[in-house]
Design brief:
single chain, 509 residues, alpha+beta, 13-stranded antiparallel sheet, 10 helices, 20% helix
Length: 509
């Protein structure tokens, strides 16, 4: 059986160049204050091509006021599509419907496309959806690694026999005049009442990469790019989806293309085309007919419901980042930077204490994947981590009780959040396969102790300069327009040569 690696092929379309000039959306623009521009310019001026942006402490005025763990819920935010998938009888049409669901989430983004907050090690986020038929969908997530960052999550709608397991592993790189967020990791969507294999019919999904173009000069623009896959090994079907970046001399922004193929026969069944932020279509090769997959224009998504702050523990996303998010919403970037720094410094102190005590941190809600021949997660090794619970109830009601026993999700729930397990170094969780080599774990521990949120510039460039510049960010004017519920506007600047207004969009991950 062919396994999904969690990586994707790069797009053959030539990347958008410095001369690209797209018309910006005025609602996605924000004037950059002089002090903010200086801070951003100071950070960028010290970067080298290939530098790891995950180790950069970014100024708070380009941050989205929510954690990556919460942002992942965009994937489940169209239940009107998701809940219908297991009901489709024909395997090919069911696969097409899954591709539709996969494509439906990319339009969900804040105006200006901000970078979500990097979750701290052991941070958790839980939530649920209430569906029109009276059932619910449940979501549990935890930051299972900080260096490299890994956000692991679990979702289930028991009455609809839908389960999703995933781990997102973003890697951010500086590429000269662009910044890239390489979205590694996979998600496994399964229909538990279908298929002949253990655990149901599975769909393996990867994500496109994200780019911010023109960050040094030229037009600044956000793009999704490169290839992603939707693969169903049980039915031998695969969708190769290309998120096309705009070329030097032609093309359009936000375009997609691709095919749906039968891997067993090699036959191409459908051709995909359109734009991920508007209409996307599938053309049936046999009949020549086109059908609308999804129209993102005006589409309304459904975010999860979250327990009240007073019921959350200090390490849950919304309570953890509350003061930071309030400051970002109020456009008080000095306070936002101070609050964010307090959280990060506390994490470094905890990492140093663990190192001193000879203890290793382990996730409290997730366990290492048991892959390999005969393993319970054979073929799903690239998840790295999976929910540490057995959910095998004979009825949906039994499954709900098993889910609620993992962590508090519903308001008023009496289940307590588990304590973070600390074990002597080199001791893995009993009964589980340790997928991280000892050397890698030691390197991660050292990085956490040293404070890996800063760029490693080498001896010639000292990171305290970046920290000092960050702390000098001043609040923007009181007349700045607010965005969404916890959102600050997008940046804009004037091109030196053309005098035209450029838009700045940060890569989302």
């Amino acid at each position: 059986m062919k396994q999904l690696s969690g990586h994707r092929r790069l797009s053959l379309t030539k990347g958008s160049g410095d001369s690209s000039r797209a018309n910006g959306n005025s609602s996605d623009e924000e004037t950059v204050e002089g002090e903010q521009g200086n801070v951003l310019g100071h950070i960028i001026s010290q970067l080298r091509p290939g530098a790891d942006l995950s180790k950069v402490t970014l100024p708070t005025f380009i941050l989205e006021p929510r954690s990556m763990l919460e942002r992942i819920t965009n994937f489940m935010a169209h239940p009107e599509i998701l809940l219908t998938l297991p009901e489709v009888e024909d395997p090919v049409q069911r696969f097409v419907a899954v591709v539709k669901f996969y494509l439906s989430g990319w339009h969900i983004k804040p105006p200006g496309v901000k970078k979500p907050l990097n979750p701290i090690l052991g941070e958790t986020f839980t939530g649920y959806w209430e569906y029109p038929d009276g059932t619910k969908g449940y979501y549990i997530s935890e930051q299972t690694s900080h260096h490299p960052p890994k956000s692991s999550y679990f979702f289930m709608a028991p009455e609809h026999n839908i389960r999703i397991d995933g781990t997102l592993k973003p890697r951010s790189k500086f590429l000269g005049n662009s910044a890239a967020s390489l979205m590694e990791g996979i998600a496994v969507l399964r229909f538990m009442d279908r298929g002949k294999t253990r655990g149901g019919e599975r769909y393996f999904l990867t994500q496109p990469n994200m780019y911010a173009r023109g960050i040094l000069f030229g037009k600044m623009k956000y793009e999704l790019g490169d290839h992603s896959e939707v693969r169903c090994p049980e039915n031998g079907l695969v969708a190769d989806i290309e998120f096309k970046v705009k070329g030097y001399f032609g093309g359009a922004y936000n375009a997609i293309g691709g095919t749906i193929r039968n891997e067993r026969t090699g036959e191409t069944l459908y051709e995909l085309s359109g734009s991920w932020h508007s209409e996307m279509t599938a053309k049936n090769i046999a009949t020549g007919q086109k059908e609308l997959l999804f129209n993102a224009r005006g589409a309304k998504h459904t975010p999860p419901v979250v327990r009240p702050l007073e019921e959350q523990t200090d390490n849950e996303s919304q309570k953890l980042w509350l003061k930071t998010c309030i400051a970002i919403r109020n456009v008080d970037h000095t306070a936002a930077t101070d609050e964010k720094t307090k959280i990060e410094e506390a994490q470094r102190e905890k990492a140093a204490k663990r190192h001193q005590d000879g203890k290793e941190w382990h996730p409290k809600l997730f366990r290492s994947v048991q892959g390999g021949p005969g393993g319970s997660e054979e073929g799903e090794e690239n998840l790295d981590w999976i929910i540490d619970a057995t959910i095998d109830g004979k009825t949906p009601q039994e499954k709900v009780q098993q889910i609620l026993a993992i962590a508090p999700i519903l308001p008023g729930q009496t289940t307590k959040m588990p304590e973070t397990p600390l074990r002597p170094a080199q001791q893995s969780r009993p009964g589980n396969i340790n997928t991280q080599p000892q050397q890698q774990q030691q390197q991660q521990q050292q990085q956490q102790q040293q404070g890996g949120d800063l760029i490693d510039f080498g001896d010639e460039l000292m990171t305290p300069k970046v920290q000092a510049s960050n702390s000098n960010v001043k609040p923007m004017g009181e007349n700045t327009a607010s965005l969404m519920e916890l959102q600050s506007p997008l940046l804009k600047r004037r091109d030196t040569d053309t005098k035209s207004v450029d838009e700045f969009v940060d890569a989302e991950a």
